[in-house]
Amino acid sequence: MTEPHLARRLTLPLVVLYGIGVTVGAGIYVLVGAVAGTTGSAAPWAFIVSAVVVAFSALSFAEWSVRRPESAGEAAYVTAGLGAPRAGLAIGLAVACVGVVSAATVSLGTGGYIEALTGLPALPAAIGVAIAMALVAMIGIALSAGLAAVITVIEVGALLIVAFAALVADPGAAARAGATLALPALPVWPMIASGALLAFFAFIGFEDIVNLAEEVIDPAKVLPKAIIWTLVLSTVVYVFVVAVAVGAVGSEALGESAAPIALLAEAGGFLPVQVIAAVGVLAGINGILIQIVMASRVLYGMARRGQLPGILAGIHPARKTPVIATLLATAIVLIGILLFPLERLAALTSAITLVIFAAVNLALIVEKSRHGTPDTLAFSVPSWVPVCGLITAALLLLAGLAA
To answer: Does the pTM exceed 0.90?
Structure first.
């Protein structure tokens, strides 16, 4: 009898939209203000610098996705590259931990939005949304990725509509937005560097794509393209929205606001603030779904390779989804919602993610030095790319710990 396996149903557009959904997410609704408050009118450059820094690690992930296209990718990369199964296990568990903590944190935030919009209590709403997204994840990857794609289009579309409306409402906003993209003077760059440290966390999420490897059609071709397109398109959205926000609202007002995108919506006057709040709920739902899918695939992939109990590698014969792994991931999310101080845990996830980036880059450095780059590899990067990825991840980690 053939062993059940995950179904390969994901195409490049679905994977790219999945990646943008987890990368852009709800973070831009807060980070625009935080970065603008730090860098002033040069805020778009903080996102540009962050994109360049992230690109090194993204390209390393892209090559690994071709070398080892499998679930629980980060764990597989570190195990193979460093020849250290325990390190691979630790990295895999760290990736799963980031996923469930993020899902729990976003669930609580989404519950708060739902309470503000409907009057339903936040905690039951958070639990209900998490359970609903777990059910979607268990039904099938095509439904999960399709729903994520639809929500991503709505979410990004709303951001772009808000930005364009602000430009139309204020004829001078376009000129001011354009001025923010001019090359800054040398004294401004230290502020840009500080803002880039904040903006870096707006790009975290592209790495989740590699854990879909066993459900992607032709992963060797699709995954590198999906990672690169996710980074490029997310950067374009960030830079455009931030430039318009600074031009239309001003960096000082953005920096002082807890809801900077709402300020931009008010400036444009096209979409009511309630609609923006509703889009925020959708962004949260999308983030919960994507993180549950990711965490379950990490648990499944590690179990299939013998790093976790074999029961987690079970596949539903009809749905072709890792049901037990999904149930475990969801149970941990619900426990997190109910019991743990998620604000503290969420703050740690950024540092953990940088450790994961550093480990993946280091593993690729060692892999290339030992085995070189096969000519048959569909995608590869020069050896200096993972070196830069390792250095930048380590510097960002140290800067974050020192802050």
So the answer is: yes
